[in-house]
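Weekly structure sync, notes
Attendees: PL (lead), two postdocs, one rotation student
Agenda item 3: pending single-chain targets
PL asked that the sequence for the first pending target be pasted directly into the notes so everyone works from the same version. It is reproduced below exactly as submitted, 303 residues in total.
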Amino acid sequence: MSGGSRVLVVGAGYIAGQVGRRLAALGHHPVLSSRHRPDTPGTRGLDWLPADVLDHDSLDRLLATARPDAVVTVHGPSDITWCEANPEAADAAHHGGARRIAALLEGRRALMISTDNVFPGDRPSYGESDPTAPANAYGRAKLAAEQALLATGDALALRVSLVYGWDTAGLRPNFFTTCALRLAAGQPVSVPDDHWNTPVLADDVAAWTAALLTSDVTGVLHLGGPTRLSRLDWARHIARAQGADPALARPAPRDDTAYACRPRNACLHSERAATIPELAGLDPVDVREASTRLIAAGEEQPP
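Predicted structure, written out during the meeting:
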């Protein structure tokens, strides 16, 4: 893929918007796609086309209209608790959608943004060579989707750890946004002290995605932040960065929260990234540093 390429982004949520904006800033021509036209600050100004990943004919029309040089997939429901309660629907969207997209690629390069939930969570962190054993229905659906796209030959599954950034306009604001808003308002949050992540800033996901699309890297690659911490530790850091009482972040066992179906250790590290020239200078930022910076900047949204 060269500069000025047309890139179809299958999805129109928070991460898709961040990827689209990064691609546009680099001179590419991104087109987002989803069932309903998005209306959030992060997607405004980006081209959009209607599509339904459950409908092969809809995707066929999408590819014919968009005429992409490359495809990024960020489709399907990301509510892990919902997916656990609706495993067949989750598989239909993630796996079924990926199968349909794969059938239409016709040699185009594809990059799928995947998840740390493909692992069971019994190790402190996971690299690309570690065996998968999905912790939940979401992880099973995403792993099957990876396999469908990787079978095309010129595809990369970029597994990301917990993604964060300001997302006040989304249907389900991410953990950082939810904690920052509640704690700033003096409201308590109950979060696990036994659930670990390596959070990664949305800007870093977008930067890696754009860089990797122009590479010949295939297979699986991990993107996690450089810091492993519990949700409770992170929430208390957010509180301190806002001048709020850290005690507002209250510990709760993972099994007693909405995180019960997540792997206890949802942490990633990469065994491959240091060998990829396109990623030079794109080291992911520390979560505490980025959280402090985001809070200092306020709830800024793209124009």
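Discussion points:
- The chain has a mean pLDDT of 94.
- The radius of gyration is 18 Å.
Action: rotation student to compare against the earlier draft before next sync.
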